[in-house]
Amino acid sequence: MSELLAAIQGILRGEDGQITIRHLFYRLVGQRLIEKIEKAYKSLCAHLSRWRRLEEIAWSAFADNTRWHIRQPTFEGVEDALKNTVENYRRNLWATQPFYIEVWVEKDAIAGIVAGTANSWGVPVFVCRGFASLSSLYGAANTFKRALRDDFKVDVQFIRLAVTREQIQRLRLPTRPVKTSDSRAKKWRGGECVELDTMPPAEIRRLVEDSITQHIDRRQWQAMKRTEEMERESLCDFVRAWHER
Fold this sequence. Notes:
single chain; 2 domains; two-stranded parallel sheet; 9 helices
């Protein structure tokens, strides 16, 4: 077990952000430390739970967006609320951009990996999972409708960032058997597939950021950023005036 723990700690030290447990599993399979079977994956999950309780591994090491709670924000007073507004104020920098962009991912854990990158550019992340619900698709359609301006042509494009055949070959991504219970399995060519979790998280974040920045008008973006800074400074002045009143 000490060899497995040391390998996991080494992998985590080499990452600049959270990873999924499934990705860690494939990395360990590649190092021939565990078998590529579901039983080994479940055993790994059990070990990780124990090692995190023992603080051998940081609790924040793994992305997990499947558990969350709803909480109404509250403040200690008006000044506290105003400071919160200043800290979180962000202008909609996409209002003057030629495109409206969203990042769609297949599972909650991947959302935890790309959310920071997408958020830094003001881009929302939508988790559609294996089968998107009708309600979520209806919500997405309404979001698109609100984002489209009169001068936009209605031209929705889906750009597949991963996983591609080129990435599988270049990164030597490990495969897994296709789930025969999946209704789509009959249309699948070959008996194996590749999960997005097998890709290095840094590579996934790079793909997302590169795709976002390719669709940005830099001149307009910088102009809006300057406006945002001036507006934030105005909010700061207001908070200072409130504090000194």
